[in-house]
Amino acid sequence: MPEYKAPLREIKFVMDEVLDVPGHYASLPAYAENATPEMVDAIITEGAKFCENVIAPLNRVGDEEGCTRHEDGSVTTPTGFKEAYAQFVEGGWPTLSHDEEVGGQGLPESLSNVISEMVGTANWSWGMYPGLSHGAMNTISSWGTQEQKDTYLTKLVSGEWTGTMCLTEPHCGSDLGILKTKAEPNADGSYSISGTKIFISAGEHDMAENIVHIVLARLPGAPEGTKGISLFIVPKFNVSADGAVADRNDVVCGSIEHKMGIHGNSTCVMNFDGAKGFLIGPENKGLNCMFTFMNTARIGTALQGVTAAEGSFQGALAYAKDRLAMRSLTGPKAPEKAADPIIVHPDVRKMLLTQKAFAEGGRALVYLTALQNDIVHKGNTDEDKKAADELLGFLTPIAKAFLTETGYEATNLGVQVFGGHGFIAEWGMEQLVRDAKISTIYEGTTGIQALDLLGRKVLMTQGQSLKNFTKIVHTFCKENAENEAMAQFVEPLVKLNKEWGDLTMKIGMNAMKDRDEVGSASVDYLMYSGYVTLAYLWAKMAKAAQDALAAGTTEEDFYKAKLTTARFYFTRILPRTASHAATMVAGADTLMDLDEEHFAF
Fold this sequence. Notes:
7-stranded mixed β-sheet; two-stranded antiparallel ribbon
C-alpha cells in the first residue's frame, strides 16, 4: 500500500505563492484575526500528522473488510474506523470552519478544504463519513428554522452526529423529477416519510450517536416534476425536547451496496417507512434548497479527483525510483546495479509527470474555488459576494467533472507504472482506481456537469459567466505580455482564451437550429474548459516559481521542478484541446442519425 505523506510544501506553495491565501484571509474581517499565517500553519501541520498516522494505515483495512450489516439493519464499519473518528472529533476537526455561535471555530471554509484534501488522500472511504456532514450542515444553516438549527446544527458541527443526503431512488438517478418518496403531514406539524433511497453514502454506521438524513420527497397534491419536490430532515433517532437522542425513527438500512470501490464506506439502501421528518425550506422548493448541499458535495467530489491523482502519484513515484528494469537508452544510469530504475525511461517519466501535473494543477483549481466560497459567505460587500458566487458557479462543474476524469486517468497511470504489480491488490494501486471511478459518477456524472456548464452556466447567461473568467485570464496574460520568460506560457494561453469564446459562439449558433448540438458538444466543451483553466493556473505557478528563483532561494530544485512540470503541461497535455475543439463542433448528426434499432443486429 502506498505510504501517504502529506504534501505540505506543495500545499503551502499554492496557498502562499500562487493564490495569496494569507492576503485573502487578511482582507476578510471574519477571518483576519483568527486565520493568521501562524495559526494556519499549525492547523495544517497537525492535520497532516493525523492523516498520516491515524487514518492512512486504515485505508487498506477498509477496502479488505468493508462494512457489515446486521439483521436489525445496523452497520459495523471496518476495524479502527470508529476509534479514528472518535480521535477526529476529540481533536475538534469537524468544528474547524463553522460559526462560533453553533460551536465552530470560525475559521475559513477554504482552510477546512485543505484538511479535507489530506484526509481524502489518506483514506477517502473514511473521510466520507465526516465529509458528507458539511452539506447537511450548510443546508440546515441556510434553510432551517431557528428550532431546527438549535436541535441539529450544534451536534452536527461537533461531529457527535453525522449527516447524509438522500436523493437517488431505484428508478431514478439524476432525474429527480420522477422521484416517488412521499411525505404525509402529521397533526403535530411533522411529516411521515415513506419510500426507498439507494446509493446513500454513510447512510448507516456505528461511528456517531445519530445520523441526520436530508431527504427529498413529495407532499400530497404537489406539482409533477422538479417543481413538486420538498426537502425534509429525518433523523435516525428522534430528538427529545431537551436535545437528547430518543426513540429510533422508522428509517433503516435495508442492505449495503456491493460496489466497485470505496468499500470502507457504507453505501446503503435506506428504507423510510413512515419515518418522522420535518420540512426544511419552503414547500415544493426542495430542489432549490438542495443545491446548497449539492454545490458543497460537488466541490468535495472535485477534491476526490485531486486526492486520487496525488495518492497514485506518490505510490508510483516511490516505485519508479526503486524498481529496476532494462537500461536507459542513453547508457546505464546505475551501472553498479543489474538494471536501471524505471524512472529513467521516457514513457515512465511521461506517466509520472502527467500524474504530477494533474495533482498539482488540480489542487490549485480546488483551492481557487474554495476561496470564492469564503467570499460568498464572508465577503465584505454584496457586490463581492455576487461576483464570487458567479465565478464559483462557473468553475464548479469544471472542477467536479474535469478533475475527477483526470484523477481517474492518473490512477490508471499509477497501475501502469507498476506494471504487473499494479494489478496485484497488496500494492494498493488498483484500489485507487476502483475508489476513484465513483467520483466521475456521483454528485452528477460528467455528462450532467457538462450540460450544466455549457447549457446553464454559459449559454443561458449569453456567455457572461465565461467572459467573467476569460477576463481574469486575459488580465494575467496582459500583465505578463512583456515578460520574455513567460512567453512560452502566455502566448498559447492567449490563443486558447480567445478560441474558447469563439467555440462557444459557434456552438450557441448551432444550438439555435438544433438543441441536440448542446448535448453533443458538452463533454468535449467541459474537458476543453478544464485544460484551459488548468493552463491558466499552471502559468500562474510558473510565474511564482520564476519570481522565487529571481529573488534568490535556497529551494532551487523545488522551483525548477515547478517550471519543468509547467512546460510539460503546456507541451504534452494542453494540446489535447485541439482534439476537443474539433469534436465539439463536429455536429450532432454524427451521434443522432443512427436509428436506435440499428445500434446492434
